[in-house]
Amino acid sequence: MHELALADAVVTSALAAAEREQLREVTRIAVRIGELQQIDKDVFKFALEQVMPSGEPRLAGTSFTLETVPARFRCRACNRGFTRSETGGSLGKEEAEAIHFLPELAHAFLRCPGCDSGDFAVQDGRGVSIAYIEGE
Amino acid sequence: MAIDPRLAAVEKRLDSVERILAVTGGKGGIGKSVVATTLSIVLARAGRSSGLLDLDLTGPTAHVLLGAQPKAPREEFGVRPQVVDGVSFMSVACFSGTSPAPLRGEDVTNVLLEILAITNWGKLDTLTIDMPPGLGDAALDVVRLIPRAEHLVVATGSRVVLETVRRNVEVLNRYRARILGMVGNMDRGDDSLVRELAAAHGVRFLGSLPYDETIESRVGIPDRLGDSDLARALERCVREEHPGPA
């Protein structure tokens, strides 16, 4: 599934950060999941566990903290700030799936509730990122 | 500070791709998409595993050239490219369908990064990238994110085009991008200005691609694109630089 690729990217990045910071052990990886990407936390946690390399001692005791971040937008045309729920009814399956894969396609399928413009900034809650890594 | 995990994923995702050719030129309308698509077909017909990535994110057309109906990609440790006549194909159109996707700079970078981070190409001998016109975010991101990409510069004999291509080549050189060479597209028998531009910038001139009046009738039919004079000329251009096509 698509989540496995993103989970693998998180683990690969965490290992690279551990290398840079000379950590012997990564104790926690905190992941932010943007609302726009519509990834279920449990599904993503399962994906992370699936891609954890078994022979990597630095990740043997790693736990994950997952946080879903609400999407926040700011319209460039009328300057209105708005949330995902304010953009109107539910999307069709294909449109929702497109945004799931490429969150920026919100510009193709979502509109500002104030002026109907698709020219808005995604201020928060777009996709998967690592908030922080703890280790020693 | 937050870490963007996609940056680490890009290199890993492209590990299984032996060579990456970025078909560039800077100017719109000089035939980059036709050259990139035809090249990917030529390589596939020569028995090489060939991929095509359309990075013209706001004006994708490679699917039209391939005659592909873009469809939501199958998920398999990421997303698998659609296979069209032996060419593994990926485009923003596979997600957006026929809807226009207006994107600003940062959005362009995000879409490009996301596509590179999640596309599971599998093993490929060559991935051909259809680059967008201009020296904007997408072009600079390819130079930054895929430093091993070899740029195939497309020019025509028009002085208007050459002015833009010159700027494009200078930026590629400044950023130490790898330039495979330059081709003179839509040639009507005098490509001297293209040759001069290539020589002036230390870029190898790979050959001329003839103006082909039949191209429009071949659009959407990979077999016919692969049988065109353009395809034969491209084969000759890349044979030496890109061993494989017979």
**Can you give the mean pLDDT of chain B?**
93
CATH architecture field of chain B? 3-Layer(aba) Sandwich
Shape of chain A: elongated
What is the percent of helical residues of chain B? 40-55%
Protein described:
The complex is a heterodimer of chains A (136) and B (246). The model of chain A has no long low-confidence stretch (mean pLDDT 93). In chain A, 32% of the residues lie in helices and 26% in strands. The longest helix of chain A has 19 residues, at 2-20. In chain A, the strands form 2 sheets. A 3-stranded mixed beta sheet of chain A has the order 2-1-6, with helices on one face. In chain A, strands 4-3-5 form a 3-stranded antiparallel beta sheet, with no helix packed on it. Chain A is elongated, with a radius of gyration of 17 Å. Chain A is built from 4 helices and 6 strands. Chain B has 246 residues and is an alpha/beta fold. Chain B has helices at residues 6-13, 32-45, 62-66, 93-96, 105-118, 137-145, 159-174, 192-200, 215-218, 222-226, 229-241; strands at 17-24, 50-54, 74-75, 79-80, 82-84, 87-91, 124-130, 150-155, 178-187, 205-210. In chain B, a hairpin with a 2-residue loop joins strand 5 and strand 6 (87-91). The radius of gyration of chain B is 17 Å and the shape is globular. The interface between A and B is large, with 37 and 35 residues.
